[in-house]
Design brief:
Order of helices and strands: HHHHHHH
Number of helices: 7
Distance between the termini: 186 Å
CATH topology of one domain: Ferritin
Mean pLDDT: 72
Structural class: mainly alpha
Radius of gyration: 61 Å
CATH superfamily of one domain: Ferritin, core subunit, four-helix bundle
Helix content: over 70%
Length: 279
């Protein structure tokens, strides 16, 4: 009986030991499995790191190649920003305004220029001709009037000659100012015709001089009167020329009438009532 109890106790001890061993084996297996899985995960991570580094290296190389390619293409380059000095210079110029256009010779400066507003002077050929001929006529009448004031035998002819010289001197000075304002300079010396007429009269004296002088005055005034009348009415003529022609026209008519009256008084035959004349 005692042996049986010992045997039974031994068997129970063996069973308990077997059970304990089996339990310890089951608890070790998961840990081993976990150890194995952890080892595999570490290996995978270790393998993935070099692959990621290689991918990053390739991406960096591609990024480096793209800027280089962009630099090699001129069309993709942005326009260089202007230098600060150039920008400052442009600002100064825009502040000062555009440079004044140089004025061509023979034309007035445009309105609003540095020298002030001045009218445009594109003078027509007709106006130039009028200024030219009127200036020569005044110079001739002035010279002949002075000659008559010195050589005429009649006091009335002397007085008339002096008046004609003074009036034409004033008219010539006015015309010169107008011509200058219009950028056209009238003649300042008598024509060859005036010089030849003066030379012819200088050879005469007494009644012959008076007769020839008055005859010449009537002829020249008749010729020039129509020219002044036409210019005074020409719409396209500058206002200053129209005013000069109109005001001088009255003086021309007065001189003509005086010369005609003196011719009739002295019996020179130069009087022609109602005919036009010259200052």
């Amino acid at each position: 009986m005692r042996k049986r109890i010992l045997f039974t106790g031994s068997m129970l001890a063996l069973l308990l030991a077997a059970a304990a061993f089996a339990q310890s084996g089951q608890s070790g297996s998961p840990q081993a499995a976990q150890g194995t899985q952890s080892s595999q995960t570490d290996q995978n991570q270790a393998g993935a790191a070099p692959a990621a580094e290689a991918a990053n290296a390739q991406a960096g190389a591609a990024g480096a190649q793209e800027p280089a390619a962009a630099q090699g293409t001129p069309a993709s380059e942005p326009a260089p920003a202007p230098a600060s000095g150039a920008q400052q210079g442009t600002g100064a110029e825009s502040g000062q305004g555009p440079a004044a256009t140089p004025t061509a010779p023979g034309s007035k400066a445009p309105a609003g220029g540095a020298s002030g507003a001045t009218p445009s002077t594109t003078l027509a050929a007709t106006d130039k001709t009028f200024i030219h001929d009127a200036a020569l006529g005044s110079l001739e009448a002035e010279e002949l009037g002075r000659l008559a004031a010195e050589k005429a035998s009649s006091p009335d002819v002397k007085s008339f000659g002096q008046k004609m010289a003074d009036d034409h001197k004033q008219a010539g000075d006015t015309l010169k100012q107008i011509g200058t304002s219009l950028q056209y300079e009238p003649p300042s010396r008598p024509s060859s015709h005036a010089k030849s007429e003066k030379a012819r009269l200088e050879k005469l004296s007494g009644a012959d001089f008076d007769r020839e002088f008055l005859s010449l005055v009537v002829k020249e005034h008749q010729k020039d009167l129509s020219v002044f009348e036409k210019e005074s009415k020409r719409e396209a003529a500058p206002a200053s020329l129209k005013s000069f022609a109109a005001s001088t026209l009255k003086g021309l008519q007065d001189h003509l009438k005086m010369a005609q009256d003196l011719s009739g008084k002295l019996g020179t035959g130069s009087s022609s009532p109602g005919s036009p004349g010259h200052p």
